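Students often ask why we bother predicting the structure of a whole assembly rather than each chain alone. The short answer is interfaces. A chain on its own may look different once its partners are present, and contacts between molecules only exist in the joint model. In this exercise we take two input lines together and write out one structure for the complete complex. Read the inputs first and try to guess which parts will touch.
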Amino acid sequence: MKTDYNSSDSAIHELDRLGIKYSEVEQPHSVDELQDIVRKAVKNDLHIFPIGGGTSLGMADIPDQIDILLDMRGLDKVLHFDDKNLNITLQAGMTINEIHSFLSSQGRGYMLPLDPMYSELATIGGAYAANSSGPLRHFYGTLRDQALGAGAIDAQGRKVKFGGMTVKNVSGYDLTKFFIGSFGSLCIISQISLRILPFPQSFSACEVALPTEEETANFLYALRQSYLLPSGVVLFQDRLQDAPRIIVAFEGHEKAVERQNNEIHQLSQTHGGTCSTSMGRENMVQSLHKAFDPVPGHNPVAIFKIAVPIGQGTQTFNRVVDFTQGKDLEAKCTLLAGNGVIHIHLMSADEEKIGAYAQDLKQAISGDTAQFMPLKAPASIARNLRSRSDEKLSNYLLKPLKNKFDPQNILPSLGE
Amino acid sequence: MSEKSQLVNDLESIVGKGNVHHTKTALCHYEYDASLFRGCPKAVAFAQASEDVAKLVRYANKHDIPYVARGSGTNLSGGTILEDGLTIEMRRMDKVLDINLENMTALVEPGIFNLSLQNILGKYGCYYAPDPASQKVASLGGNIGENSGGPKCLKYGVTSNHVLGLEVVLPNGEIVWMGGESADMPGPDLVGLYVGSEGTFGIVTKILVRIMKLPEDVITMLAIFDTIEEAGQTVSDIIAQGIIPVSLEIMDNLVIQAVEDSINAGFPRDAEAVLIIELDGITDGMEDQAENIKNICHANNVVSFSRAKDAAARSNLWAGRKGAFGAVARLRPSYLCCDATVPRTQLPAALSAVKEVSQKYDLPIGNVFHAGDGNLHPLILFDDRDKDELSRVHHAGSEIMRRCAELGGTISGEHGIALEKKEDMKTIFNQDDLTFMEQFKKVIDPDNLCNPHKIFPETTT
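Now the answer. The structure tokens for the assembled complex follow.
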């Protein structure tokens, strides 16, 4: 068994903090064991909730009472690594950092360009279930662009597989993509095949500080209009009262990285700002983590995510910051500038205040194009905040699919 | 009034007089696509708006008429063939509705040609990455149906990596929107499900695509080899060096000969294999990469290595590659284009298998393939007036698929399953897998009228 299931386990701790109750915990160490657990649930009409690192529980529709808490972290092996064909197959319970560590130690060094928050805790299965991603999505995309295939146990307890090992694959429906973001509501993913890449030759991170909001927006716009190809662009503040800074990461051929660094320096000067550069992969990764992840040593009690069209990103970020400053809350805000994805980390421990803030913020930025998602929040708050699918999609597609694939409702809710 | 007349009358009341084809002569254009299958529809109705499509679907439901959406009919697996059904023709819905350079998106109707969209976006310094070889004539809606690839997908991914949202007429006749301009829409990825669903889940009526800035620089190289194995090894070695070009495309001598007769792209006629390699991106560093690639080619006994001097030369090379399928018509009247994909390192084994199949079934097979991602297109050449040859062709195609699946690959990389490969699905999926997948069809289209009898073997329960 991997854990002692005490409060020091972050995933269990998070459930306890959210007030979620569970009757028993099962931690399979093989797909056969996983299948047996699901079959037991089918036979006895028990509700299962799969969990990995517990880092995106706010997005899931967690019932107040779970019969079987299914800890997927016992499925933590590399099943197949193919450096020549650039793919890897992993069990769902392996953490993102474990994957990075494995890949970087192989041969010339390889990478899976997936860097969600809490990568030391988040599992690949959890990232798949929640559609988690981080700054590197700017250049490399998300799991939608990296997953090649998967194996799962369905709600009847059958082993099924879909996709394959090749990037080009239209043999049957693309269920590998469909289940991303489905929170295990239609089947439980046991393994995932992913596309990997060789490490680029060179890495850098530029930290840019600009004098005003306007110049920050102008800088980001100019960057988007240029030929430059950053791997990540994060607008961030460590604290609300801080002036925002921008991390721009580059990777690739050393000459390309050098030229792009120079251009960022010039661009920042054009907009009245300053720029510092650090080289090397470790520095780049640390810079992106510093910008994107919660402030080290401060465990946020809530994390909210807002997605808007790319062109609205900076404007919405500024509105969110202004709004939050007016609420007397300790917070950090970040923007993945190339994707229009904003994260707000709240440090306040007052649940009522968080709930009111979140409702008001959601209302303030509401519109057809803004999606509001709680990544981490008390269950009662998260439930009321979660964006729902369009009613027609829900009624004509999602609910019927749920009823067909999980007639006994043993798997997590689709949240519809 | 006869049943046929009533049908025509009813359809005309939906789409307008003159927008329904029903005569034998008119319908014969719709009884085939780019596959070997034939099936004559009852009627063809030309839709001009989403609401037309919705009304046509509701009509089909009411009268229990199977239907299929059709763009340009370039489908290679029989996806747009539907005997005795209603063909809903989408080509008149071909507008670009919006180009948003702030959000880097474009909203288009499904009937627009892929290349037409590229040309329009080019005026803004942008492009849409998926570039199937048929892009001159293939519609974007068809690209969505098949999750089309193209030479650029080695670096940029396939259609589903570039589609952000879809307006769809569901099989119940409702118009829905899925996905959107904001990232990370909640819930399962319905857009991902619909792209590549071969028109079996409804009819796409609007498409929101991601567009990209044209790259700063492009270098296109041509390498000539005495053996296809050396060309294949070169591809593996390039990737092993950590270089991910935009494209790595190979053609063999049989195809080269046809291409030169047809297009005169400048490929040497005595070349056993040509490898087209394209890099794009930031200028700095590209010369080093190109030099690296040249060295790799030489390490694999390249006979000659050259670079396209300018855009015109580049365009000519690609015209040769993208015109390959049409060019082989000079050799035999028909071809069956296989579409298996194998892991890149299994390409030599796959090509050997193709050679063996050619000898076994006594059929000439030309090879064109997206070498970078292991997607082969063996072109089995034959005369479809020869029934014995036709029978051997289907067996040969199935055997190629089976051999590729045994090498760790799959039976279709980008052309779809539809009619051609549905029995071969059992090669790569077991009964539980197929049942699981088919349940999606049963839920979304319970009446089984939306492009029915495609994808799944007849024996799946």
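Check your guess against this: Residues 140 and 151 of chain B are 16 Å apart (CA to CA).
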